Amino acid sequence: MHKISLKDWVVLLTIVPTTLIGLGIAGYFSYNRYVELDEYLSLRAKSIAEPIAIVGVEPIIEKNRDILRRLIGIAHRNHSDIVKNITIFTADNQIFVTSAYHGDTGLLRLKPDQLIPQQTMVEVVPNYLIFRTPIYDDIRQQSPNLVYENALGYIAIQIDRNKVQFRQQSQIVIALGIVVFGSLISAIFAFRLIKNVTRPVTSMVQAVDRIREGKLESRVSGQLVGELNFLKNGINAMAQSLGDYHDEMQRSIDQATVDLRESLEQFEIQNVELDIAKRKAQDANKVKSEFLANMSHELRTPLNGVIGFTRQVLKTPLGETQRDYLQTIERSANNLLAIINDILDFSKLDAGKMVIESIPFALRESLEESLTLLAPSAHKKNIELSLRIAPQVPDSLIGDAMRIKQILINLANNAIKFTDKGAVCIDVDIEHQQENKAKFKVTVTDTGIGMNSEQQKTIFEAFGQADKSVTRLYGGTGLGLVISQRLAQEMQGDIGFISEERRGSTFWFTFSCEINPVILDHALPVEALANKSILYFEPHTHGRIATCDILSSWHMQVMPVGSLDEFTTELAQGQHYDFALISHDVTPAALPELKALITLLQKNTHAIHLAVNSNSPSLHEVLIGNGVTSCLSKPITPSRLAKSLLPQHHASTTQLPVAGEQKLPIKVLAVDDNDANLKLIHALLKEQVQEVHTACNGQEAVAFCQTEKFALIFMDIQMPVMDGITALKAIQSQTFNDQTPIVAVTAHALSGEKEKLMVEGFSSYMTKPIDESMLKHTIYEYCDLTLLSPQKPPAPTFDANHLALSIQTQAIDWQLALSRTGNKVELAKDMLAGLVSSLPETKSLIHEAIVCQDIEQVSTLIHKLNGACCYTGVPALGKITHEIETLLKQGQLLEQLEPEFFEFFEHIDNVLDEAPSVLEEVAELSTRV
């Protein structure tokens, strides 16, 4: 914005107001004079015309032109300075007499359509004014009350305006001259003021500008008057002060520069020391990684022996008790192996390399497995352990079940460890649910020793423990809660606690999971229990509520009692029950009481079931010998309870036939560069649709789509020749399958990858291994079929589950292999054999690529192997392969992944070592069946 200078302000505030005032006054008086001259001219004209009109009545009547001619001639001569012509017209608009016969009488005559005016009227023509005054003859009629006027004619006078206009213009010129003169006088004073005020101010401004530019020696000179002299002195004093300050600051800067140089020399020395320390730390970290990798191998080797020989013994004929013991040993060893893996992965958590899986799982089944592992510890301390899952909690989820169980086992183990008597209660509820995602809350409450305020502050520190004394009562590494906290945060949740010393603690953690749209088929065969009555005795409130929820969900008529008095009162009524379930804490002193209860119960029911806090087979046999139908160990879980109440139905469920289905009349294209993956997806699709085409890369898929029309296309993403995204764009732009739904199928799903693929144009997204139910749902959704194929009667088949349970090693999970091939033994065997045959070459190629630092080749080989692992039962190899692919996609260097590759090659060796015996055993068992 333009700034107005002081000089401009002086001009604006002096000359401009004076000029405006002068113009206003001159205009006012000029206008008044102009109006006065016009009025003066009109009055003179009227003073000539009106007397003549009065005197000329009789001459007109008498037609005496001489009198009127003399009269108007005198008037014309007397007023010749303004009168140009005087003419008298008759009533018929004819000239009666005129003072200037050579004048323009036509200008004075009225127009034919004009009437004689009733009074003097004026008409303005260029340079002239025409005044017309009527001449009337007043005649009084016989009636004295009636008078009328008779117009005899009119007088027209032509007035010259030139002289008047000249006088008006002269007045305006004189007024403007006065205004100009006044403005000149004002300008003279204004410039005088500018010279005396603005010039000194301008010199001061220039001096200030020079001072601002660093020329501190600048001063304002000259003798000024008044306030300007004070301002000059102030500016000069300010410049002197700034100069002094500048000199002092320069001296300080010089000193600071010297100090800074000394500090920089010290920093350089420290940087060298830090660089040396960094290299030592990197070397130490490398040694630590190698140590962890070596320890991983050393710790797993004996555990593999324990687990392997336990599974071998389980294949031999065993009693029920022996089998239960061995299965407990196997579960404990697997749990120990998982804990070791978590401890070894602690460094990965710090580095942010922990990968949370997203696979379908059954929540209740996973929690029951955790409680089975926790039960012996609780029984040993005679602690009541119970689990209650809210009825509204969904069971079929997509998430990382192993990490959820790890957190729960850690919190529950701590609760049992720090509780000497009482109970450990576990509650599972849903915090909120939005569309297909939900947040769950698991609460573990104990009646143990609790924590004081100091212990609570350090509970989530690494290697921190509540008991830090030399004579520790409670063991532990101090990593459990730290790992649990990080895992909960990785699952978009949190962890917290409420504790009071000597009054117990309540730990809780939350986690988020997707709700699986495909319901996992884990329903228990409890239809026969509907409307059956059961008497349930449980002194512990939490356990009683949890079990009542289970029984009520089976539509049983439950009669819960919580004390011996209520129990005996209920029995005294003599009501008969279909079942009786007695939950009792077993101690040597309580056995006689328990036997008495059994005897008393036999009058009211014939099916008595006990739930005791012991795994002792001998105790179970003693109790069964006293008339009990069955005896199960606490905590009570739905599967154990159903097996006890309906043992015959549970036994029948070991045969799980595969239901045949009618194929859908559609054509589907599957694209994958891995032969094993392509074989599996072809087999899965062939069971659901009539016609399946396969392609090994995107180019073949485009060629198929140019000649065939498909109802649905399943497209792998990373492929040679042409990748999945390029093939998608080519199919949509170059073929007549542009409207065909294309589903992305990939073995790797980073955060945000699904959204990226949907933006590229894919209709849906599926991760490997492909879930058969999800595949069926996808076909239903995108092929717009009203109904899926009706179920056929179940076809007889062999016991796939028994075969799965009997074959399991450290590296190969045959049950997982079967589930990923739809319980097809031959297909699972072929998939495993194909993977094993390709592993030596894959291992060699990856090793060569690592040596050559070819990260692109490593990523390609790892991705291909990850896809192959998705369809075979090699969970350990699949997990580490998936983890390495994730880290490579996140930009990790090969040197940083040295521990992961060490573990990766170890898992490949384990698979190669165990595969021949597993395949041989599968073949042998298949022939037996």
Automatic annotation (TrEMBL):
<dbReference type="InterPro" id="IPR003660">
    <property type="entry name" value="HAMP_dom"/>
</dbReference>
<dbReference type="InterPro" id="IPR011006">
    <property type="entry name" value="CheY-like_superfamily"/>
</dbReference>
<dbReference type="InterPro" id="IPR036097">
    <property type="entry name" value="HisK_dim/P_sf"/>
</dbReference>
<keyword id="KW-0547">Nucleotide-binding</keyword>
<dbReference type="InterPro" id="IPR005467">
    <property type="entry name" value="His_kinase_dom"/>
</dbReference>
<keyword id="KW-0902">Two-component regulatory system</keyword>
<keyword id="KW-0067">ATP-binding</keyword>
<feature type="modified residue" description="4-aspartylphosphate">
    <location>
        <position position="716"/>
    </location>
</feature>
<feature type="transmembrane region" description="Helical">
    <location>
        <begin position="172"/>
        <end position="194"/>
    </location>
</feature>
<keyword id="KW-0175">Coiled coil</keyword>
<dbReference type="InterPro" id="IPR003661">
    <property type="entry name" value="HisK_dim/P_dom"/>
</dbReference>
<dbReference type="InterPro" id="IPR036890">
    <property type="entry name" value="HATPase_C_sf"/>
</dbReference>
<feature type="domain" description="Histidine kinase">
    <location>
        <begin position="294"/>
        <end position="515"/>
    </location>
</feature>
<keyword id="KW-1133">Transmembrane helix</keyword>
<dbReference type="Pfam" id="PF00672">
    <property type="entry name" value="HAMP"/>
</dbReference>
<feature type="domain" description="Response regulatory">
    <location>
        <begin position="667"/>
        <end position="783"/>
    </location>
</feature>
<keyword id="KW-0472">Membrane</keyword>
<dbReference type="InterPro" id="IPR004358">
    <property type="entry name" value="Sig_transdc_His_kin-like_C"/>
</dbReference>
<dbReference type="GO" id="GO:0005886">
    <property type="term" value="C:plasma membrane"/>
</dbReference>
<dbReference type="GO" id="GO:0000155">
    <property type="term" value="F:phosphorelay sensor kinase activity"/>
</dbReference>
<dbReference type="Pfam" id="PF00072">
    <property type="entry name" value="Response_reg"/>
</dbReference>
<protein>
    <recommendedName>
        <fullName>histidine kinase</fullName>
        <ecNumber>2.7.13.3</ecNumber>
    </recommendedName>
</protein>
<dbReference type="InterPro" id="IPR008207">
    <property type="entry name" value="Sig_transdc_His_kin_Hpt_dom"/>
</dbReference>
<dbReference type="Pfam" id="PF02518">
    <property type="entry name" value="HATPase_c"/>
</dbReference>
<dbReference type="Pfam" id="PF09984">
    <property type="entry name" value="sCache_4"/>
</dbReference>
<dbReference type="GO" id="GO:0005524">
    <property type="term" value="F:ATP binding"/>
</dbReference>
<feature type="modified residue" description="Phosphohistidine">
    <location>
        <position position="863"/>
    </location>
</feature>
<keyword id="KW-0597">Phosphoprotein</keyword>
<feature type="domain" description="HAMP">
    <location>
        <begin position="195"/>
        <end position="247"/>
    </location>
</feature>
<keyword id="KW-1003">Cell membrane</keyword>
<dbReference type="Pfam" id="PF01627">
    <property type="entry name" value="Hpt"/>
</dbReference>
<keyword id="KW-0808">Transferase</keyword>
<keyword id="KW-0812">Transmembrane</keyword>
<dbReference type="InterPro" id="IPR019247">
    <property type="entry name" value="Histidine_kinase_BarA_N"/>
</dbReference>
<feature type="domain" description="HPt">
    <location>
        <begin position="824"/>
        <end position="922"/>
    </location>
</feature>
<dbReference type="InterPro" id="IPR036641">
    <property type="entry name" value="HPT_dom_sf"/>
</dbReference>
<dbReference type="Pfam" id="PF00512">
    <property type="entry name" value="HisKA"/>
</dbReference>
<feature type="transmembrane region" description="Helical">
    <location>
        <begin position="9"/>
        <end position="31"/>
    </location>
</feature>
<keyword id="KW-0418">Kinase</keyword>
<dbReference type="InterPro" id="IPR003594">
    <property type="entry name" value="HATPase_dom"/>
</dbReference>
<dbReference type="InterPro" id="IPR001789">
    <property type="entry name" value="Sig_transdc_resp-reg_receiver"/>
</dbReference>
<feature type="coiled-coil region">
    <location>
        <begin position="246"/>
        <end position="284"/>
    </location>
</feature>
